Amino acid sequence: VRLDAQNLGSLARGCALLGAGGGGDPELGLSMALMAVEEHGPVEVVALENLDDDALIMPCGLVGSPALASEKVWGGDEGRTLRNAVERLRAEPVAALMCYSQAGANGLLPVMWAARIGLPLVDADGMGRAFPELQQQAMHLADVPASPVVVTDGRGNAQVLYSADDAWAERMARSAAACFGGVCAGALYCLTALEARDAAISRSLSRAVGIGEALSADAVSDRIDALCELHDAVVVIEGRIVSVERRAPEGFVHGSATIQEDAPGARQLRLELQNEFLLAIEDGAVRAAVPDLISVLSTDTGNPIATERLRRGEHVVVVSTPAPAPWLSPAGLAVAGPAAFGYDVDYTPSVQGVTDARR
Amino acid sequence: VRLDAQNLGSLARGCALLGAGGGGDPELGLSMALMAVEEHGPVEVVALENLDDDALIMPCGLVGSPALASEKVWGGDEGRTLRNAVERLRAEPVAALMCYSQAGANGLLPVMWAARIGLPLVDADGMGRAFPELQQQAMHLADVPASPVVVTDGRGNAQVLYSADDAWAERMARSAAACFGGVCAGALYCLTALEARDAAISRSLSRAVGIGEALSADAVSDRIDALCELHDAVVVIEGRIVSVERRAPEGFVHGSATIQEDAPGARQLRLELQNEFLLAIEDGAVRAAVPDLISVLSTDTGNPIATERLRRGEHVVVVSTPAPAPWLSPAGLAVAGPAAFGYDVDYTPSVQGVTDARR
Q1: What residue of A is the nearest CA neighbor of B81?
Q2: CA atoms within 13 A on the CB side of A46
Q3: Do A176 and B178 touch (CB under 8 A)?
């Protein structure tokens, strides 16, 4: 597989859905990735099993506030700075980049970087979706250390952060991003292909492209059908947004939204959000919960809507997609389940909310 | 010269005066340095001309708020962490440590580190006094880069900060200190002995010990006399503190204090302070100005008083000591003259304020 002008649009649509409302707008990253492949040629996508055991993989993406990522002027050479720093630290060449999160802006920026430095991109990632914290990575669950974390503003300033404690690495990285104006580029959890075969989430990039293709159907209902049939999504509710509550301290979005069904029954669903949509609650019962992906699509445009773009009055369909397997283990749920976000509810697999009669 | 239980007390007194009201309380550093030399033996002090040209010198001290430095629990191994990181970065051994500022707490912490890792301390520093910003270094004037800056909390977390711009290095270091609770240990402006002979301020450590010995006389007037006769100090005023205005946003002290002479003439002097005493103004005229050192001594105890310890009603003598030569160049004044601190006045050499008839 290669990423080029033909399939980058699908990748971006897939990343928008996998962002589960967060991860930053993929549009700016898409533009930059398109320019980069036009100038430097397509980006090779390589499966983990096709890399040498000791090939060094550099997971990368943005660090800091994804909401600020589309306001930042990316120079394009951030990936090269990160790669050079990692090669200096490891004293060996980087064989391939990997999106640490194949979602939102994080699913596209590394495509631009890979194109510009002429390296392949691995068909895997560390999250299989978007999460707000850098230690919410499958690599963290597999005991691959985040450190040394490299961050750069792409303007000649860089930091290398060392800690044996991934939570401290996250704290230092966030502080560095704040120093760089709220968002910057970062590489972390660098690992060999041998390690990644166990530690990373395989096929994330193919999955994102596949989901993006499902979202390319003309009719919105065909898009939803394809998501459900090909990607195990379930529809949680379809209706109108009747209220949105949101605040964004330090660029991180927190809040909730309520969606009311049009039908006579008038079911109501409350979405809890923190950058991403994290819980879907109906009559006090959990209908979908993180780490499963909760995505909100406009029934007008058929496109996923980011948490910071929700508007009252908009007609939407809420779909939930199963979390990648590592997140459903006890360790995975401890790091990225509802309790990790401060919600006093247990994870339960997502529940179909609309009967087949709907369509 | 060696630093041991006999002369560390003098070093600490000298560092208190050279702090010019800032640089952090040397007392905690003194206790830790005394314990370290008791356990590991005295610290050798080496002159710059006695080091091999290519000997690597690691300037170090605290980064962040000096006011918080005495509240931090220093583990003692911060220097070792810094040294190990610098040796990894430079791929060569560190030959000696240097206080980046031979003043306040910064003049003592590196003594403890040197004792614990068994390295000598260079008889030189980067400031010849205390300054609030890390780019206010003679090495900066000599175009030795601050970067890579290494900082650590001494608890297993470390950061290496890269920038060609010393102001950005300072900004990143300050942000890292904030992430570490407001203060941490740092190494920066690493350089060879050959470079240091031009770039650093020589004999700072001997000077601090000499000033400390002057401050060891029993009678306060003898201390002042010795400062004036042996260390070119001038007495600016002697009187009572009649007002103190001070605020400490983010641990950095800002404010002013007014001192009124006891004598019938009743001269009044206003001190402007930002961590350090920066200006002494009488009737609108500058009597002493940064980069000259302005120090306030209690006439009761004969000891220097830190800006954050000034109390109304206290009887004090204000002395000014000449700045090391690099600060009096146009480049030096641009970095550390009154204008660098936001004061719209020109530097003028300090003026004797009390006639010899006083004593």
Answers
A1: A162
A2: 22
A3: no
CA distance linking residue A113 with residue A156, whole number of Å? 16
CA A111 to CA A266: how far, in whole Å?
A: 43
Q: Please judge whether B175 and A178 are an interchain contact, meaning their C-beta atoms are less than 8 angstroms apart.
A: yes
CA-nearest of B49, B55, B199, B194 to B126 is B199
Flag if B156 and A163 touch (Cβ within 8 Å): yes
State the pairing for strand pair A94-99/A56-64.
Answer: parallel
pLDDT at A263: 76
A→B interface, C-beta within 8 Å = 156-165, 168, 171-172, 175-176, 178-179
- Write the pLDDT tens digit of every residue in B232-241: 999 999 999 9
Please, is A29 exposed, middle or buried when counting C-beta atoms within 10 Å of its C-beta (0-12, 13-18, 19+)?
buried
Interchain contact, B158 vs A162, CB within 8 Å: yes
The whole-number mean pLDDT for each consecutive block of 10 residues of chain B, a chain of 359 residues, reads: 96 97 92 97 98 98 86 89 97 98 97 98 98 95 97 96 96 95 96 98 97 95 95 95 86 88 87 95 95 96 92 96 96 96 93 52
How, if at all, do strands A315-321 and A234-247 pair? antiparallel
Task: Count Cβ atoms below 10 Å from residue A328 Cβ, excluding itself.
Answer: 16
Model pLDDT for residues A119-139, shown as the tens digit of each residue: 999 999 999 999 999 999 999
How many helices and strands, by DSSP H and E, does chain A display? Answer: 11, 17
